[in-house]
């Protein structure tokens, strides 16, 4: 699709600012090499490699402190066709 001269693709990766991670959201200290985050990293590396020569495709990595900042970034693209893909962060049970 991004090969069409009138179409561009912007992929935005949201990264949490490390100083603002809430106690309920905890990154896994022992990531599994077969985990989704490892798969994500591999996919993104391949994506960057395959699209580095294509000016109509770009990847932006944006650091956010909270959901409001993520929503603000999404609103920057309000005139675009948008697909939101992702998964929830691991949340510690409040019952533990």
UniProtKB/TrEMBL annotation:
The record's section on Pfam families has: CHX17_C
Q: Where is the Cation/H(+) antiporter C-terminal domain?
A: 1-88
Q: Which GO terms describe its biological process?
A: potassium ion transport
Keyword annotations for this protein, in alphabetical order, are: Ion transport, Potassium, Potassium transport, Transport
Transmembrane region(s): none
Q: What is this protein called?
A: Cation/H(+) antiporter C-terminal domain-containing protein
Q: Where is this region: Disordered?
A: 23-42
Keyword Nucleotide-binding included in the entry's annotation: no
PANTHER family under this entry? CATION/H + ANTIPORTER, CATION_H(+) ANTIPORTER 17
Source organism (scientific name): Vitis vinifera (Grape)
InterPro entries given for it? CHX17_C, CPA2_transporter
